[in-house]
Amino acid sequence: MSLPVQVVGPHGGAFPPVIKALLLDDSSFDRARIRRLGQKADLALQLDEVASVAEMKEAVAHQVYDLIMIDYRLPQGDGLGVLDYIQQTALNKETATIMVTGEGDMETAVTAMRNGCHDFLTKDGMTAEQLCFAMTTAMQTARNKRDVAAQHAHQHEVIRQGLTEALMDRRVQSTVVSLLRDQVSTALNAQARLLATDDHRALDVFLATIADDDDDFIFN
Fold first, then answer.
1. Phi first, then psi: what are they for 73, rounded to 5°?
2. What is the pLDDT of residue 154?
3. At what angle are helices 170-195 and 200-212 packed, to 10 degrees?
4. Distance between CA atoms of 67 and 69, rounded to whole angstroms?
5. pLDDT of residue 199
6. Phi, psi (degrees; rounded to nearest 5) at 19
7. 3-state secondary structure string, the chain?
8. pLDDT tens for residues 81-109?
9. Is the whole model's pTM more than 0.85, yes or no?
10. For 84, how many CA atoms within 13 A lie in the half-sphere containing its CB?
11. Are 126 and 37 in contact (CB under 8 A)?
12. Which residue, 210, 180, 179, 181, is CA-closest to 194?
């Protein structure tokens, strides 16, 4: 049995044999144009098309996509609001996204990228090559972010397990209890000395030090 051939992107990443994508655009003309360019691109693309935000919400609630393309200018709302909605969904919050803007609308493109969009395209003059490059770049960027998040989650879990195991060790518990006793004893002795004196300025300094202390020991 032969295995499916994976598409290799411009940065060396391999993608699914068939890329499932969603296109949100209220213009049937623009949807048809992007569909034709997608067919010319060197990618196996399965493209779902929706014309409204309501249709988009229905699609992302029931289907996991590899890529979502969002037209910025919509009859209701804009692409940035749609981008934020997608990032809150259960199935597609980590899906690669592309903002499709008008020619020269770089401010919108920059804002979209700052808000977590993975790439952008301009409608005017869009070519099959540009579409292919943007799609593969967006998917690679999204996958890199997922990999980094997974690595951080793994590191945090390793640290948590290590601390849990350490705190179950009787020698560690004894050391922690001893440190707590020393801190409490030192604080109580210092407070007693200050309360025994008439120097209220010293007491004020002590209380201010406690209030501003960023090195409090926290034990859960």
1. -90, 115
2. 67
3. 150
4. 7
5. 56
6. -90, 115
7. CCCCCCEECCCCCEECCCEEEEEECCCHHHHHHHHHHHHHCCCCEEEEEECCHHHHHHHHHHCCCCEEEEECECCCCEHHHHHHHHHCCCCCCCCEEEEEECCCCHHHHHHHHHCCCCEEEECCCCCHHHHHHHHHHHHHHHHHHHHHHHHHHHHHHHHHHHHHHHHCCHHHHHHHHHHHHHHHHHHHHHHHHHHCCCCHHHHHHHHHHHHHCCCCCCCC
8. 999 999 999 999 999 999 999 877 889 99
9. no
10. 7
11. yes
12. 210
Count Cβ atoms below 10 Å from residue 70 Cβ, excluding itself: 27
The C-alpha angle 53, 67, 103, rounded to 5 degrees, equals 70
Q: Which residue has the tokens 């990443």?
A: 13
- The residue whose two tokens read 């560690």 is 172
Q: Which candidate, 13, 11, 77, places its Cα nearest to that of 86? A: 77
The stretches in the chain having pLDDT less than 70 are 1-14, 154, 158, 162-163, 165-169, 172-173, 176-177, 194-220
Query: Considering only CA atoms, which of 181, 180, 182, 190 is closest in space to residue 210?
Result: 190
The single-letter code of the amino acid at 139 is: M
- Rounded distance between C-alpha atoms, residue 82 and residue 103, angstroms: 20
